[in-house]
Every structure is written in structure tokens, then in C-alpha cells.
């Protein structure tokens, strides 16, 4: 029984340690990525409302022309252009997904801590330890914790894709040459991600396995 307990604990420490490491990496990347997206949003969200300086100058001109009616019309008729709306939709979505990913990673780390604490912290007979461990492990599988762990990096990748989409929308409104160059780079990154996600679903001996490749495999089935 002691050997069984040792083997089970080693197994649990391995997969729990791997999941914790994955969640730590997600937290670090999500924090850095959220800071980057926030810096872009600080500049982009201003395009959704009228520039106060422009509005003030319009009011001054209107007063000089003694045309308060025109001033009121200008204030109420402002609406952001379509490209600004699309850019902000993508970037705010990216930021929300990134923050949600960090929250999910923190919560999953708490679940894993509770799982290992309940198995290893209480002194008991080997039989009791094995029964308790098996009960909690079956619950872990039943409640789809492996799927939750796999979903976290997929959400973070989705946030990155939304950021790229907003970035391309922005550069296409600024300069066609720069936009074309950026589009090629983004397309190359998406092609790499897509192919490395699809190959393991088609060729079982392909080593490019990842959460998104497993999702592609299950969809294929």
C-alpha cells in the first residue's frame, strides 16, 4: 500500500506541477499583454468621442458668428467613424479576454492547491489516502478540470487574435504599405498557428500537440 501511495502522489505531483507551470506562464503573459493592449486602448478610445479642444474651438467660432444653433447641432451630430468603432471593439474584447484568462488561471491554481492539500496534508492510513485520492481524482475528471486548463491558453490566443485584428484595422487607415507589411506578418503567424493545430488532428504521429490541436482533433472526430 505504501508503494501505491508513493506512486499515486508522484503521478499527482507531476500533472499538477505541469498545470501550475502552465498557469504561471499564462499569468505572466496575460499581465504583459494586458498592459500592451491597455496602452493602445488609451489612445484609441478617444476617437469614440469628440475632441474637447475641437468642441471648444467650434463653440468659440459659433459664438463669434453669433450662431448658437449651429453649435448645438455640431455637439449632437458627432458620431465616430466605423473604423474607430471596429478597432475599439477588437481591442476592448482582447483586453477583457486577457483579464478573464488571468482570473481563470488564478482560480485553477486555487483548485489545484485544494486538490493536493486534501490528498497529502492529512495523516491517515495508506488505504484511506488512496480512497480519498481516487474520489477527488474522479471528481477532477468528472467536472472537466483538464478541459478548463486547456481552455485557458486558447482564450489567451483568442485575445491575441483580436488584438491583431484591431491593429490591422488601424494600420490600414494610416498607410497602405505599412498595412500590407503588417498583414503579411500577421498572416504568417496565423498560418503557423493554424497548421500546427491541424497537423496533429490529421497525423497522429505529429508532435505539435497543444490545447488547440486537441480541440481540432475532437472537432474532426
From TrEMBL:
Coiled coil: none annotated. Pfam families: DUF6535. Keywords: Membrane, Transmembrane, Transmembrane helix. Residues 1-173 form the DUF6535 domain. The chain crosses the membrane at residues 26-42, 85-108, 145-172, 178-202. This is DUF6535 domain-containing protein.
